UniProtKB/TrEMBL annotation:
Binding site residues for Zn(2+) 1: C531, C534, C571, C574
UniProt-listed Gene3D superfamilies: P-loop containing nucleotide triphosphate hydrolases, PriA, 3(prime) DNA-binding domain
TM regions (residue ranges): none
UniProt entry tagged with the keyword Transport: no
Keyword Metal-binding: yes
Subunit structure: Component of the replication restart primosome.
Primary role: Initiates the restart of stalled replication forks, which reloads the replicative helicase on sites other than the origin of replication. Recognizes and binds to abandoned replication forks and remodels them to uncover a helicase loading site. Promotes assembly of the primosome at these replication forks.
Catalytic activity field: ATP + H2O = ADP + phosphate + H(+); Couples ATP hydrolysis with the unwinding of duplex DNA by translocating in the 3'-5' direction
GO molecular function: 3'-5' DNA helicase activity; ATP binding; ATP hydrolysis activity; DNA binding; zinc ion binding
Name listed for the protein in its UniProt record: Replication restart protein PriA
Residues reported in the UniProt entry to bind Zn(2+) 2: C540, C543, C558, C561
Species per Swiss-Prot/TrEMBL record: Labilibaculum antarcticum
Cofactors: Zn(2+)
Length: 824
């Protein structure tokens, strides 16, 4: 007999630098295949769901393999595109493939070590069970929610996994059930006649139930409800419906099932509504849009990526829709990325009216089960029933696409495309270029305000560039008016946070029954409290930030660690009871408005008002439907939303954005102001934008007034070159964290010194970030700036070496070292 032992290399959801090899037991050989999930033991106590990366015959040389416990999938759930994509992400963003695995799969498809074990009810032992096995079965029979750790405790054994595994093999217990349980398919129970039932028997059967009146009634009712009960087209009768119809209990139905008269069956219900929706055709493109789409197609012949630089309301979305249609006609999939969940609400409706149920949507407000369902839908092999267009936020780049033809990155300049924490710290726009490359697909980046890097890539010929500077129906760009807050304050003309110009414009708007959007990029009531006599400011005990005051629940909250306390009644330093709030967030604006315009209908859109699942949808719907007059919001209101009746947009404080200590602050401020302005005056008439600032002469404010992206770009480009920033240089941030400040400073100094030996003046720091302590971890950064033309992979390799060397020193073992490639 040929006794080869097969091995599988498994990706585990852990930050491990290598894959682990496991042996495949004989009975699993038929099942285990690349791309399937398996359960494997890890360490002495734990087990995890892993993904089979490869199968081979070479045992590892430095450790003896453990066996795979079970295989979870009938067919692979990770395809070869995804494996290549994961590998690229892990290399480019300097993280482990396990980190990518963790980010890529919805948690409903992952098994944690805490997974429960259940006993199989109808198990009958064919062979003698060991004492521990008996003991385990006993525990399982008598308690609920048992996992490996509880079993270890209950039996007093160090590791019960071998016994559980043996019980699994004997068919006594299952874990598979439990694992899949994290994602329970929604199933509904239906009733039908038992299969051995003949039509001619029916009278006799009913007669036979004479003495069981209630059972007879159920049968009658079933025949009634199903109408054509012996034919193919018998109507479906659900158990609930049937029992309700005659007010019977399930026990009575069960007796009929036992008598082999009726049977119960289950059918899967899709949580996501895939029912047919009415669709209408595409809108005809206007002449400018037509030119743009022809140009886009032409550029795609030569370039893999095209930037569509189109002003707000120029109809970029209409162009996307036409391009999607072309892809679907070729049987290709399209990924449509959006930076913000709020935006998906409006776009999904526009897409559904054209593509009906071919469009799926994927974002973090969905629960796990729903995300698993979408994942599985895309993974299935039946193109008829699978989504062909996926509208989603950043993480949807990890879905199991099989034949992408086009990736659209809408509002490509948005920094929400970048994942900050945890690893992988990827940028969905940049990663999607690689994803598209794997599928030989094209990428379209769309925005009114391109990221400097993107525009640079387009200008230097790496990407195609298509411009669209006319709004649909030649609507004028909004008129931008500046209010000088410094002067108004001096003249004592400010009404709370509103300048006289803004007050007057709001009044006119409300009189005309037009809508207003007010933008302030701070949530909460006020950014901080301050003692009037000594200037003391309450800070978070865990982070180096002041606490934000939230009025609705009267709490001071840390926006970094969520620490919250009641506001102090007296100053901790001088005891004064005069503590005032400083600055203003969206909550305070809302409150002031309510006082100033008691008849206006006002709502607020920020993180605090949109935590619940349908909260965005409700707000947007209300505003669209003219049930609101004023919408106050953070950056959520600035992006891509399309409302017909907004004639005024107010930016309450341009300076807080401009003064932010970051090399992108000017670029961001321009983008934010230009985008939020774009919400004004869409369909009907020219809109107005009022920007309040202390610095009306600021060059960026000038660029915004003139809607002059290119000047802003040229100005920024010069600075980027001078101060060594992207697009001329690539940045990698090395972030060190530890609870002990002295230790982390020492480590950073040593690492910076050793990096300096290799990279010289390209190393900046160690430096303390603006917020240098979060959740009691002290943070120190070292920034590496490398020339665009030099090999980033080599630099990354060196960085890894040095970081590993640091971590190999005993005293620095516990220091966290993270890399952030292309930090935002
Ligand atoms: P953008 O994405 O560039 O901001 P949109 O695609 O949202 O612009 O277009 C702005 C508004 O104009 C939308 O309400 C859209 O339906 C409408 N619109 C744009 N192009 C057309 C067209 N060709 N036919 C009809 N309506 C259009
Ligand atoms: Zn004080
Ligand atoms: Zn905090």
């Amino acid at each position: 007999m040929n006794k080869t032992t097969d091995f599988a290399d498994i990706i585990l959801p852990l930050p491990l630098a290598q894959l682990f090899t496991y042996s495949i037991p004989e009975e699993l050989k038929a099942d285990v295949a690349i791309g399937k999930r398996v359960v494997v033991p890890f360490g002495s106590k734990k087990f995890y769901t892993g993904i089979v990366k490869s199968i081979h015959n070479t045992p590892p040389t430095d450790y003896s393999t453990k066996e795979i416990i079970t295989c979870l999938d009938e067919s692979p759930i990770i395809n070869s595109f995804q494996f290549s994509f994961w590998e690229w992400i892990s290399q480019y963003y300097q993280c482990t493939i396990g980190d990518v695995f963790k980010a890529a799969l919805p948690s409903g498809l992952k098994l944690e070590s805490q997974t429960k074990i259940t006993v199989n009810e109808n198990f009958q032992a064919q062979e003698v069970l060991s004492k521990t096995e008996e003991q385990i079965l006993n525990v399982l029979k008598h308690s609920k929610d048992v996992n490996i750790s509880t079993l270890n405790q209950a039996t007093g054994l160090k590791n019960t996994l071998p016994q559980v595994k043996s019980l699994l093999e004997k068919g006594a217990v299952s874990i598979e059930e439990q694992i899949i349980n994290t994602y329970k398919e929604k199933k509904k129970e239906f009733v039908r006649l038992a299969s051995n039932f003949n039509e001619s028997d029916i009278a006799a059967v009913i007669d036979g139930l004479k003495r069981a009146k209630k059972q007879q009634e159920i049968l009658h009712s079933y025949l009634n409800l199903s109408k054509h009960y012996f034919e193919e087209n018998a109507l479906k009768v659900s158990v609930t419906e049937l029992l309700k119809s005659i007010d019977a209990s399930k026990g009575i139905l069960k007796s009929l099932v036992e008598k082999n008269i009726l049977e119960i069956y289950h059918e899967k219900l899709d949580r996501i509504d895939l029912s047919e929706t009415e669709t209408s055709g595409l809108k005809e493109l206007n002449e400018h849009q037509q030119k743009a789409i022809i140009e886009t197609r032409k550029q795609f012949e030569e370039k893999n990526c095209v930037l569509l630089h189109g002003v707000t309301s120029s109809g970029k979305t209409e162009i996307y829709i036409h391009l999607i249609q072309e892809q679907l006609q070729q049987g290709k999939q399209v990924l449509y990325l959006l930076p913000e969940i709020a935006l998906t609400t409006q776009i999904i409706n526009r897409l559904r009216t054209v593509f009906g149920n071919k469009v799926g949507i994927y974002h973090s407000k969905f629960n796990d089960a729903e995300r698993v369902e979408i994942y599985n839908n895309i993974n299935q092999n039946d193109p008829e029933n699978a989504y062909q267009v996926i509208l989603g936020v950043r993480s949807s780049i990890f879905l199991p696409f099989k034949n992408l033809g086009l990736v659209i990155v809408d509002e490509e300049h948005e920094n929400t495309y970048k994942q900050f924490d945890p690893a992988p710290r990827y940028h969905a726009r940049d990663a999607s270029l690689y994803l598209a490359h794997l599928h030989k697909a094209k990428t379209l980046l769309g925005t009114a305000t391109p990221a400097i890097e993107t525009y640079y890539n387009a200008k230097t010929g790496k990407y195609g560039l298509v411009e669209l500077f006319q709004r649909h129906q030649n609507l004028e760009m909004p008129e931008i008016i500046i209010a000088d807050v410094k002067e108004a304050t001096r003249k004592k003309q400010m009404k709370s946070m509103f300048s006289p110009q803004l007050m007057q414009m709001m009044e006119t708007c409300l009189e005309n029954k037009e809508q207003i959007i007010l933008f302030q990029n701070r949530r909460g009531y006020s950014p901080y409290l301050e003692c009037k006599s000594c200037g003391w400011v309450p800070h978070c005990p865990n982070c180096s930030v002041s606490l934000t005051y939230h009025r609705y629940n009267n709490q001071l909250v840390c926006h970094y660690c969520a620490h919250s306390i009641h506001p102090p009644t007296s100053c901790e330093h001088c005891g004064s009871t005069e503590i005032e709030d400083r600055g203003f967030g969206t909550e305070k604006i809302e409150e002031e408005l309510t006082g100033l315009f008691p008849d206006a209908r006002i709502a607020r859109m920020d993180l605090d008002t949109t935590r619940k699942k349908m909260a965005y949808e409700k707000l947007i719907y209300k505003f669209e439907n003219n049930e609101l007059d004023i919408l106050v919001g953070t950056q959520m209101v600035s992006k891509g939303l399309d409302f017909d009746n907004v004639s005024l947009v107010g930016v309450l404080n341009a300076d807080s954005m401009l003064n932010y200590p970051d090399y992108r602050a000017y670029e961001r401020s321009f983008q934010m102001m230009a985008q939020v302005s774009g919400r004004a005056g869409r369909k009907k008439k020219r809109g107005k934008v009022l920007i309040q600032t202390y610095t009306p002469e600021h060059p960026i404010i000038k660029n915004v007034i003139e809607n002059d992206y290119v000047s802003m770009y040229n100005g920024q480009l010069a600075e980027r070159k001078e101060y060594i920033y992207p697009p001329y240089y690539r940045l990698i941030n090395i972030c060190l964290k530890h609870k002990n400040q002295t230790l982390v400073n020492q480590a950073a100094a040593i690492l910076a010194k050793s990096l300096h030996k290799v990279f010289g003046i390209r190393v900046f720091g160690p430096q303390s970030p603006v917020i240098n302590r979060i959740q009691n971890y002290h943070i120190v950064n070292i920034l590496l700036k490398i020339e665009k033309k030099s090999s980033p992979s080599k630099a990354k390799w060196i960085l890894n070496q040095h970081a590993n060397h640091l971590k190999s020193m005993d005293q620095f073992k516990s220091i966290q070292v993270n890399f952030d490639v292309d930090p935002m």
